[in-house]
Automatic annotation (TrEMBL), chain B:
Keywords: Cell membrane, Membrane, Transmembrane, Transmembrane helix. It holds the Pfam family CbiQ. The chain crosses the membrane at residues 22-52, 64-83, 113-139, 145-166, 187-205, 236-253. One of its GO terms (cellular component) is plasma membrane. This is Energy-coupling factor transporter transmembrane protein EcfT. Its main location: membrane. It is a multi-pass membrane protein. The gene is ecfT_19. It is found in: Membrane. CDD domains: EcfT.
Amino acid sequence: MGPSPNGSTSFPVKFRPIMQHALRLSHLHFTYRSWKEEVCDSLFVDLNLDLQEGGKTLLLAPFNKGKTTLAKILCGVCPKYFPGTLQGTIELFERDLSTMEPWDLLGVCSYVSQNPQEQFIATSVEEELAFPLESLGLEREEMARRITRALEHWGLEDLRTSSQQELSGGERKRVLLAVQEVIQSRLWILDEAFDDLDQRWRNQLKATIQASDKTILVLASRYLEEFTGLFDQVVLLDQKAIQNPSLDELLPRFSHLCGDDLPNPLEGQVLEMSKKQKLSCMDLEAERKRMSTLLGRSFSLHVPDFHMESGELVTLVGPNGSGKSSFSRLLCGLDDPIGGVIKLDGQPLAGKELSKKVGYLFQNPDLQIFLPTVEEELSWSLKRRKDLKSEEMRARVAECADLFGLTLSDTPSTMSYPQRKALQAAVYFLLERPFYILDELDSSLTYYSALAIIARLRKRGAGLLLITHDRQFAARVAQRSYAIEDGRMASL
Amino acid sequence: MTTSTFVAGKGWLYRFDPRAKILLMLLLCVWFFLPVHLVGLYCAVALIVFTGGLNTGFSHVWKIFRSILPMLLFMVLFMPFNVRTGRPLFSVGSVTIVTEEGLMQAARLAGRFIGISYVCTLLFATTIMNEVMLALRWYRLPYKAGLVVTLAFTYIPFIADSFSQIAESHRLREADREQGRKFLQRLKDLVPTLTSALVVALRSIPNLAMSLEMRGFGLQNRRSQYHNLGSYRHPFTHFLLSVIIPVVLWLLCKA
C-alpha cells in the first residue's frame, strides 16, 4: 500500500487488505550512541523476525537485552528520540518503516510501555483516551462510544475524570491498555504488560489477547503462568538476535539466562540477628480523597491488626488500588494515620522517628538514587553520622558495594535497571533499618535478582514486608501473608 | 509526565464559561496594576481568595499560599531595603535602612503577587485542561500553541511533584544516628534534590515528545474535538460579568 496524498496515515481503519506479514525485521543492527562519545556495544546484530498478520507472539528476553528498545524502534521513536545507529530493514504491513513518522503509525501500531508513567500526556483518564482519537479525526459520537466501552472493559468508569498521579501502578497500566483498545491499531506491542496488574486484570488481558484478531507482540522478561497456551509463536532474544528453538528447548534456556536454576539464596540462610524487634499496629485508619474527581467514593484504609518481627519475611498481596502503597506510606512514617498507632517494641512511633526504623524501597529506584557515582550514593547518609570515622565509612561502603555487586565509580543513571535496583537496596542496607518495605521488588527483575536482594537485606535479621502481585513469587518466599482488598487488611 | 491542577467541585466557578473565565483572569491581572488604595487592593485579594476558597475548598487555598510563600517572603524581606525615598523609619547613623515608602511598596507588591498567582491558579483549578485548550482555540490561538500552553501548565506541576517525591526519598534515607542538621547543611542538601528533579525533568522530555507523536500529534489531518463548550449556558452573561467584576472593583478601590 502506497502513501496517501496528504502524507498522513495510509491505513484506513475500515479497509484492510489481507497480508501475510504484519512485521518483517531483516538484518537489524542497532547501537546506542554514547553521550561520552565512547564506542558502545551493539544491542542487536543481524536480528530477524517475522510476524504473521493476526498472529500472537511472545518475545522473551532477560533484562537489558533490548526489549524496550526494539519496541521503540518498531514505533518509529528510536533512534529519533533515543539516539543510536540503526541498520537493516523494517517492514510494517509491507511498508518500509523508514519512510514513516511515528504519527503515521497511529492506527497501524500501538505500544504499551513497561513504565506507564512515561506515556501519559493528558490530565485525566478520559482525555488520555480521547487524544489519539482526536488525532484520527473521529466523530464525537464514535469517540464517546469507544471510550465508554474501553472504560467499562478495563474497570475505569469511576476513574474517568481522575488524573494520572492519583492512580495506582496497575490502574495506570489499565488506562494504557484502554488507550490501545480505543485506537484499534493493527499491531499491538505490549511491553511487560502483565506486570503491575493483579490477577483479575491479568486474566482480563489474557482473555483480550485470546479474543483479539489483531497482531500481538508481547515482550516479557519472565515466563508467567498466564502465557501458557496463549501464543502462536514464542521466541527468545539472546546473543543480540532472535532465537527460535522449540518451546521445550527455549524455556529451560531462558530460565538459565535469568538465573532461575541457581540455588535460592534464601534457603538455609543464617541470619546475623543482634536483637529481636517487633513492629505492630492496631486499628490503623487513613483516608485519601481523589482531588481531581467527584466520581467514586473517597478511599479509606483500615488495618485491624498487623505485626512483623525481625528476620520475618511477610508478603502483602492485593488488587490494584486496594491500599498497599497507602499502608506502606503509613508504616514508614511518610503519612500520618487518622486513627490508631504504629508501635516498635510497644513504643508508639510516628513521622521521622518511624522513617528511621522502617525503610521503604519505592517501586521506581530512580526516585531514590540521585548522586553522580555509586560511592557518593552509598556514603550520602553515612557522612551525616558523627559516630562514624571516615575510614570506617569508606570500608563499609566498599564492603556493601562488594556484597551487592556494584562498582563504586559507576554512574547510577547509566547503570542497568537491575543494578539500579541493587544500588537502591544497598543504600538501605547501609542504613541498617530493622524493617524494610519492598514495593513490587519482583516487578521488572528476575526471580533470582529479587531473591538475592531480599537475602542481602535480610542478612542482618531485618524484617521484610514484600508487596507483590505475583502469587508464584509470594508463595516461594513468604513465611506469613496479609491480603488487602478495598482498603481492608486481613491476615491469610 | 503531566500533573493535573484541576480540583473537582460544583461551585459557580465550575459552571462559568472557560472563555469568559480567561477574560476575567486577564482583566483581574491588569486590575492589580491599576492605581488602587492599598486597603482596596487587599480587600479585593481577600474577596477573590474567599470566593475561590468557597469553590475549591480552603485547603486548596492554603496549598497555593504555601507554594508561593518562599517567593513572597523573599520579596517582602528585601523590597524595603531597596527603596530609599520617603520618610525614614529605621536608620543606622546617617544610613537609612527602611522607609515608609519602602514598606508601602513591599506591601503593594506582596498583594499583587498573591492576587495574580491566585487568580491564575484558580483558572486551572476550576477548568479541565481540555476546556482551557478549547477556550484558547476560540480566541484563535493555533492548536500547537494552545497545546504548548496547556502542557506547560501540567508539566511544571509534574516537576514540582517529582521534587516532592525526591525530597520524601531523602527523608527516608536519613541515618538513624544522624547529627542534627544545621540550616546551611539543609540548604546544601537541597542541591542534590534539585539536581535529581532536573534530571527527571530532562529525562522525561524525549518520552513526552515520543508519547505525543505516538498519539498522532503531527498528523496533518484536521483534529476532531471530544469535548465542546456547548454545555456552558449563558456565555454572554458570563462575558458581561467578566467585564463588570473588574470595573466594579476598580470603582470601589481606585486611589
